[in-house]
Amino acid sequence: MSDIEQTAKMLVAPGKGLLAADESFSTIEKRFESLGIPLTQATRLSYRELLFTPAGIENFLSGVILFDETLRQKTTQGKLFVEVLEERGIIPGIKVDEGLERLPGSPNEKITKGLPGLEGRLKEYKNLGARFTKWRCVFVIGDGLPSQNAINKNAEVLTNYCLLSQRVGLTPIPEPEVLMDGNHSIEKCRQVSTLVLKTVFLSLKKGNVSLEGILLKTNMVLPGRDNPKRATPNEVAAATIEALKASVPPEVTGIVFLSGGQAPKEATANLNAINYNEECPWELSFSFSRALQQPVLETWQGKEENIAKTQSIFYKRARLNSLARDGHYTPEMENE
Question: Is the pTM value of this prediction over 0.85?
């Protein structure tokens, strides 16, 4: 087994998932600003430190996706975050795309930038301790959207990213995300998600990407945010698994779901339903950002006196998602 395949397997070890702590400066600024937390290098460092240091989180987290700044940062005790994670058996990874830009010829669609100079950055990140990478593309559902051109172009970008990552010995996690924006039905989301994933994997196979040496990060199949008809966890699970079985080759090591704007308890319940009583050829886990972090931010408020309580809440959310990742979560556990 190659190193990239071994890392992929370790990231979806039973009972474990990923913390996506790779928010860009603009994203974390919005989250801090909404709670009145000042955005400084010091507050960002304090926040990351409280996420990475609670005792026992290594029982639930296999890896953490970092942002460029965090990969280089040290704790207040002077130890690199990468070393803190590795010492606990948590694998450090890195977001390597450079965000979204308008897709030429399509004013309402985006393509992800960052391929120029990527190989050099990947080599640097590997030297800094990263063992896996992540690259996000987004697709909006709307009138005639997403276009096949947008799907094809982003699939090509994801393929080039995966090839470069694997070339330097890093496990890639391509993330094609169908956004929740809009009032579309869960069935429409299933259709679009299936098309996007089919196109991505056709491109990956054509490009000779090792599918055993990647993880897929993708959305659950959900109705649009503005659709008044909400879906039950069982409905989400059925639609999600149908889309995956129609599009994802069995040799892919694992699939990690993004929470994609879901409330924390909602994301956990849906993850549990996906894993409950369902035989799939892949490990099905989580790579949550907001669903793990929102309760943490709301409790912390940027105040040192709230750190202990905040870390307790983070530990609980990580534990509950660990249980859901194996289909062992019940809503009653939220009150324990």
Answer: yes
